[in-house]
Amino acid sequence: MFRRLAAILIDSIIILLPVTPIFIYFVVIHNHMDDLLGMNDILRILIFISPIIIYQILCELLFKRSFGKMIMGLRIVSLDGGEIKLWQMLLRNVMRILDHGLFPGIFLILITKKRQRLGDLLAGTVVVSDDNK
């Protein structure tokens, strides 16, 4: 559990590095905070979660896992232990909209037997240690 949370923290830092200057540019320098606050909640969630989804999809397409998972010795597998399929990867990542935005994914990780978030449950995937090969 600690390694998965550490992987999330590492990935968050990687994502925030390029996103923060863009946010500062539009919101602070050009004073577009009113535009951001005036958006409906779903649009605001999509704007904030899009970099996370794009990062995760690119990492999983190229490396089969994010840099955080790689550093922490974690990987994503199907429930049968095999490599995840493209549809599973896309589904688990698109579901981040709910996991991060409308539904606390961390809560499911804490209470499910296999430590799965909503995206994992729906895609039939699980995050495991590299030690479990």
How would you characterize the overall build of this protein?
It is a single chain. This protein has eight helices and two strands, in the order ααααβααααβ. Strands 1-2 form a two-stranded antiparallel sheet. The model has no long low-confidence stretch (mean pLDDT 84). α3 packs antiparallel against α5 and α3 crosses α6. By secondary structure, it is mainly alpha-helical.
Please outline what is shown here.
With 133 residues, this protein is mainly alpha-helical.
Report low-confidence residues grouped into runs of 5 or more. none
Number of strands: 2
Percentage of residues assigned to helices: 55-70%
Instruction: Tell me the radius of gyration.
Output: 16 Å
Order of helices and strands: HHHHEHHHHE
Distance between the termini: 18 Å
The average pLDDT value, as a whole number, equals 84
Total of DSSP H or I helical runs spanning 4+ residues: 8
Question: Order of strands across the widest beta sheet?
Answer: 1-2
Secondary-structure content class? mainly alpha
Quaternary state of this entry equals single chain
Biggest sheet record: 2 strands, antiparallel
Inertia-based shape: globular
- Hey, roughly how much beta strand do the residues contain? 5-15%
